Amino acid sequence: MSDEMEYDDAIKKDKRTFCVYFKENLKEKQIIANTFIAEDPIKSRGIKIILFTLNLILYFVINGLFISEDYISELYYIDEEDENFFSFFPRSIERLIYTTIVSIIIGYITSFFFLEETKIKGIFKRDVDNKVILLKDIINLIKTLKKRYISFIIFAFVILIISLYYLLCFNYVYPKTQIEWIKSSIAIFIIIQILSILKILLGAVLRFLSFKCESEKLFHISKFLD
Which domain holds residue 185? Predict the structure, then answer.
């Protein structure tokens, strides 16, 4: 069932339960579930793993980029006896915000390498009655997908090489920050994934509330969260 239906069509035709809708959206929009669970006839598992790896490494890179000299100096004068495993967290909140913003921008940039599902569906809907044109459009679609995937692989490879070089230099120059940097990077990654799941959950709740309360405004808010 398409999530692109308007309110009047959705309330009549969408018979999915809350759990089914939430699970489908989770597999489609949450990067871990989409990478390792969801089946995608257009985007191969290998491409999705490359994208996931790129995102993960960039969390570490972006986190490192926002570690200031003042922050590094502060770490050198911290009394380790007063520290515990989660002491890094209050010091990392600002970087969490910056990393989230930058990761959204990067996600938007990488999306240009992939064709939208609506565009692919549009080809089949538009040319379904003309087999010759449909075949031609499918061939062009495959060529476009190949070009974009090759471009994405090259882009990802270049970014990964630059990122690994930066991370090696960062850890060599600032060895004192290694543990704090690793813990905060992992924490940022986990928090962003949790926020992603909560966003999907909120969208699903608002969608079903809109059906229950017959509120088109709630329905449009849920679509905005998608």
Answer: 7-225
